[in-house]
Amino acid sequence: MNRLRIKSIFLFLLFSISYLDTAHGWHDETHLAIAKAAKYSKWYSAVGADMAKIKAGSTEPYNHYFDNTNNSEITPEMVSSQINRYNKPGDVEGHLYGAIIASLREYQKTVQAGKYPEYHIAFCAHYIGDLSQPFHNTPYDDFNKTHHTINDGEVENEVLKNIDRIEKHMYLIFLNPAHFEEDLSKEIARIANISRKLGLKLRTENRDMTKGEAYIQIGHSASLFKAVLKYLGKID
Predict the structure, then answer these.
(1) Count of alpha carbons within 13 Å of 83, Cβ hemisphere only?
(2) How many whole angstroms separate alpha carbon 76 and alpha carbon 62?
């Protein structure tokens, strides 16, 4: 094995370990609040995807982010291209967008198999929560590393007591059952781009999110998750 190849492998492992150590997304109570604002009856399960990282090794973490190194505009086609990467280990780029749709496919498969399917919705709730976190939609560079954790916890200490503040930023999203995944891909791309652009703004201004910006962001996630729950018949 030549020296260049050894160096490449070392850098790959170093990047993977450093990202997996920090790629948590919103902290626990923020994820719970998103699910609760969306009226999910099992909102308390929305942190399960982060808990799974402890025992799932390199399988679960890559479902939580997209390391958009080129700051590319997210398209519905890009979302669809990530679906088959769900739970794929070693996919350092990450595949958050595809994970949302793939988790719902797993839910449908589990329903058809006559088994308990709710955990897949809980995973989906978490991924949709991560969708509005700017630092999970932008390059994992020095700025991201420095500011990631503080932005994950921007409203953590108060958010469960302020569900109404999330609701003020929620809006109707309709996912047509006739072409559900197509509509969902478009909404995922839309919110991903909103999050990406905010992340770039924070980088340009060299600052963290304000509480107001954080509530607007999680309002996007709660709105989309509520639309998914309506499609699944979980809420009216």
Answers:
(1) 16
(2) 19
Give the per-residue pLDDT at 56: 85
Tell me the per-residue pLDDT of 136-152, one tens digit each, with 9 for 90 and over.
999 999 999 999 999 99
Looking at the domain assignment, is residue 14 inside a domain?
no
Which distant-in-sequence residues (6+ apart) come within 8 Å of 154 by Cβ?
A: 208, 209, 210, 211, 214
Give the predicted TM-score (pTM) of the model: 0.90
Question: Looking at residue 212, which CATH number applies to its domain?
Answer: 1.10.575.10
Give the whole-angstrom CA distance, residue 172 versus residue 216: 14
Contact 92, 16 (CB under 8 A): yes
* Residue with tokens 């492992």, as numbered in its chain: 13
Look at residue 6 and tell me if it is in a domain: no
Range of the domain at 144: 23-232
CA dist., res. 192 & res. 218, Å (int): 12
Helix axes of 96-112 and 118-131: crossing angle, nearest 10 degrees: 170
Residue 16 domain flag = no
Matching residue, tokens 């308390």: 44
Q: What is the pLDDT of residue 57?
A: 82
In the DSSP assignment, the letter for residue 51 is H
Residue 10 lies in a domain: no
233: tokens are 């018949």
**Domains held by the chain: number:** 1
Which of left, alpha, beta for 12 (phi over 0: left; psi -120 to 50: alpha)? alpha
